[in-house]
C-alpha cells in the first residue's frame, strides 16, 4: 500500500507543511530553548525546513486565486520557521562574543 502523501513526484501542500513544521519542532529541543546553547547540529533541521519550503513553492500556480494566496501564507510561515532556527543557531555564538565566555 503506497501513500500519495509520501510520493515526491506529486505536489502536496500538506506534506510540505508537515516537513517544515516537523523540522521546527525538532529544532526547539535541540537548541535547548529557552536557554539557548551553541548547537551546530541545528543545521540539520534548518536543511529540513528549507526542503519543506522548496516543496511548498512547488505548489504555486501561474494564475492568482485563493489557493495561490494560501500557498503564499504557507511560504511566509516556512520563512518564519527558517529564520527562527537561524536565530537559534546564531544567537548563542553572538552572545559568547559579547560576554567573552
From TrEMBL:
Membrane-crossing segments per the record: 12-31, 37-54, 66-95
Keyword set, alphabetical order: Membrane, Transmembrane, Transmembrane helix
Top-level taxonomic group: Bacteria
Protein name: Permease
Organism of this sequence: Granulicella cerasi
Amino acid at each position: 500500500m503506497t501513500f500519495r502523501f509520501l510520493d515526491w513526484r506529486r505536489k502536496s501542500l500538506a506534506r510540505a507543511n508537515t516537513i517544515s513544521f516537523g523540522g521546527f519542532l525538532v529544532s526547539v529541543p535541540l537548541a535547548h530553548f529557552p536557554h539557548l546553547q551553541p548547537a551546530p547540529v541545528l543545521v540539520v533541521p534548518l536543511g529540513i525546513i528549507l526542503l519543506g519550503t522548496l516543496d511548498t513553492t512547488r505548489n504555486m500556480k501561474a494564475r492568482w486565486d485563493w489557493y495561490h494566496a494560501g500557498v503564499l501564507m504557507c511560504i511566509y510561515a516556512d520563512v518564519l520557521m527558517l529564520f527562527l532556527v537561524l536565530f537559534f543557531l546564531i544567537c548563542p555564538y553572538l552572545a559568547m562574543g559579547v560576554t567573552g565566555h
